[in-house]
Each structure stands twice: as structure tokens, then as C-alpha cells.
């Protein structure tokens, strides 16, 4: 146990932050599991939303979020390939992801 007053306060603050972060992480994990189990457009969008909130609150790193979103996008594109039998049509989510990547690259230039 901390003895110094500031260390005691730090311990209190850390406990609050830890519990808040655990809630956010649990929400993200739940959304990802649901999206992986039944990869519908709505479930993937919900997962994207919860991942974005986690990044906004600095609970997970933005590169990890990008990796998770990429994996979820692949599930949607696989599902559309299986349905249609072709590789040409992209889902709305895949189109949005590719457009976002293009605009991001153009902004850097």
C-alpha cells in the first residue's frame, strides 16, 4: 500500500481508469466475437463502432484497431464472395474502407 498522499490518490485514479478500460475492452471483444460468429453488415458496423470508441479513449492502439477492422472487413468480403460466386462486387463496408484508405493517402501528399 502506498504511504505518500499523492501515491494514494494515484492508486484511486488508476483503479477507476482500469475499471473503465475493462468495460470498453469487454464491449469491443463482445462485438468482435458477435461479428465473427455471424458476419452481417450490421454486426461488423457495431464492432467497428466499439473499436473506434476504444481508440478514441486510448484503450487500444490505432494500429491494432486497424488490424481488427481489416480482419472483420475480410469476413464481410468473404461472405459476399460466397453469396455471389464472384470476386467483383464489394460490400458497402469494404467500399467505405477502401475509400477511406484512398483519401488518407491523398491527404498525406
Describe this entry's structure for a reader.
The protein is mainly alpha-helical and 109 residues long. The protein has a single domain, classed as Methane Monooxygenase Hydroxylase, Chain G, domain 1, CATH 1.20.58. The protein contains four helices and no strands. The protein has helices at residues 5-37, 41-56, 62-84, 92-108. It is elongated and about 65 Å long. The protein starts with a helix and ends with a helix.
Q: Summary?
A:
The protein has helices at residues 5-37, 41-56, 62-84, 92-108. The protein has 109 residues and is mainly alpha-helical.
Key descriptive features of the protein:
109 residues, mainly alpha, Methane Monooxygenase Hydroxylase, Chain G, domain 1, 4 helices
- Unreliable stretches covering 5 or more consecutive residues: none
By CATH reckoning, the class would read: Mainly Alpha
Beta-strand content bin: under 5%
- Work out the helicity level: over 70%
Instruction: Please give the count of helices.
Output: 4
Please give the alpha-carbon distance between the first and last residues: 52 Å
- Tally the beta strands: 0
The name of the CATH architecture is: Up-down Bundle
Mean pLDDT: 87
List the helices and strands and how they pair.
Layout: H1 5-37, H2 41-56, H3 62-84, H4 92-108
Amino acid at each position: 500500500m502506498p504511504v505518500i498522499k499523492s501515491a494514494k490518490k494515484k492508486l484511486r485514479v488508476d483503479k477507476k481508469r482500469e475499471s473503465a478500460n475493462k468495460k470498453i475492452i469487454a464491449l469491443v471483444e463482445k462485438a468482435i466475437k458477435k461479428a465473427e460468429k455471424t458476419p452481417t453488415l450490421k454486426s461488423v458496423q457495431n464492432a467497428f463502432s466499439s473499436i473506434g470508441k476504444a481508440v478514441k479513449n486510448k484503450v487500444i492502439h490505432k494500429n491494432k484497431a486497424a488490424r481488427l477492422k481489416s480482419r472483420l472487413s475480410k469476413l464481410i468480403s468473404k461472405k459476399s464472395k460466397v453469396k455471389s460466386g464472384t470476386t467483383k462486387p464489394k460490400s458497402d463496408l469494404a467500399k467505405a474502407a477502401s475509400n477511406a484508405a484512398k483519401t488518407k493517402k491523398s491527404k498525406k501528399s
